[in-house]
Amino acid sequence: xxxxxxxxxxxxxxxxxxxxxxxxxxxxxxxxxxxxxxxxxxxxxxxxxxxxxxxxxxxxxxxxxxxxxxxxxxxxxxxxxxxxxxxxxxxxxxxxxxxxxxxxxxxxxxxxxxxxxxxxxxxxxxxxxxxxxxxxxxxxxxxxxxxxxxxxxxxxxxxxxxxxxxxxxxxxxxxxxxxxxxxxxxxxxxxxxxxxxxxxxxxxxxxxxxxxxxxxxxxxxxxxxxxxxxxxxxxxxxxxxxxxxxxxxxxxxxxxxxxxxxxxxxxxxxxxxxxxxxxxxxxxxxxxxxxxxxxxxxxxxxxxxxxxxxxxxxxxxxxxxxxxxxxxxxxxxxxxxxxxxxxxxxxxxxxxxxxxxxxxxxxxxxxxxxxxxxxxxxxxxxxxxxxxxxxxxxxxxxxxxxxxxxxxxxxxxxxxxxxxxxxxxxxxxxxxxxxxxxxxxxxxxxxxxxxxxxxxxxxxxxxxxxxxxxxxxxxxxxxx
Length: 480
Description:
Blueprint: E1 3-5, E2 18-22, E3 29-34, H1 38-53, H2 61-77, H3 79-90, H4 94-117, E4 122-123, E5 134-142, E6 146-149, H5 157-169, E7 173-176, H6 183-194, E8 202-204, H7 210-218, E9 224-228, H8 231-239, E10 246-250, E11 256-259, H9 265-277, E12 289-293, H10 297-308, H11 329-344, E13 348-351, E14 364-367, H12 374-377, E15 384-390, H13 393-400, E16 405-406, E17 408-412, H14 416-425, E18 430-433, E19 449-450, E20 453-454, H15 459-465, E21 467-475
Parallel strand pairs: 1-3, 6-7, 6-9, 7-8, 9-10, 11-12, 11-17, 12-15, 14-15, 17-18
Antiparallel strand pairs: 2-3, 4-5, 5-21, 10-20, 13-14, 16-19
């Protein structure tokens, strides 16, 4: 049965406009959302601001921890259905959606751990005449109202990364999911309320248009804005934030991989395969550009293509599927156009390069696309891996650094000097050695640089962003 959700905003009735939610596989309706207009967004902001301004309503850390513990239990009991919902609306294969649910639950556990381990600091006093007889320290307080705007590609775990830290730190939060994948988000917010979070502390809506969403984000009532999505939208919204609103932006990259000449293909190929075709390449740090030494580039590309052709492509809710659909037929058309452009201009097509259906694109490996092609210049966000030949590692690093994006990168080598050169010289916030670019655990920093983002993601880092250090200075003759 198709799921339906009304806005989760106290004091707001369901709107008249309804948005159907479609399966990306076959375009069948799997749910619907009642859309919210600017009036609804204003009410959500008012609810959140009133809660934050009335300190008598603030939730104690003990209560927040109890709510998060309850949420973990509830999500654990519904883990299979949560995975099916995520796979159905987002197209990520069920085997990977189950991992996403596990990560989401672990992310909530990380929030609890953060509350137990992170605190303010003592400020040294008594070091000069002015500071004698004084004690100073800081405590952490919630920053205020949080607005979260999310992307489609991890419809549950991205929401957890943006919303759970707000709940943990005591910030009222309003979340707007991607229009293509809102069901997981609305389900999660319902579970949060079921776990004991009082109404108004976590609100959820999907706006009727971009203007209403922009008004929500840019309101002076917003203290922190967290955005995951396209660079074009993220940077535009940042430029319009009210004075004093802090923010974090997570955009995409065009992840480079350097492969040295001494690498064992048996260890390398499974990692490139997973990093390149996980969620059909719809990951912001997906393996896209592989720079391989001229001594093994063709062999590597050929072997990668042979492994790629064995991937099972199809229904994301099937336990055996390894690569599911792209989020929309328009994205399939775009990816196909980029691949055809590269082939027409000289790239060797080693496998794939064609539509399987309006929603499925065959996993593709290209050898030596020209540097000016779209597949070499932009984030493809599709199941395409490009292999490029280099003769010297310095030239490979130069080409890897030539784009205005900087996120995660990797190098495969048994030579420590090559590995360290790559680490030192690649424009990246993180460099993986003998691991693919999409490696992530949710407590590590996760940051796009240059056009790829602003601020630092990862559960503990987001919790830090959503708090302020408030200092207390005590003066007493008894303080030594």
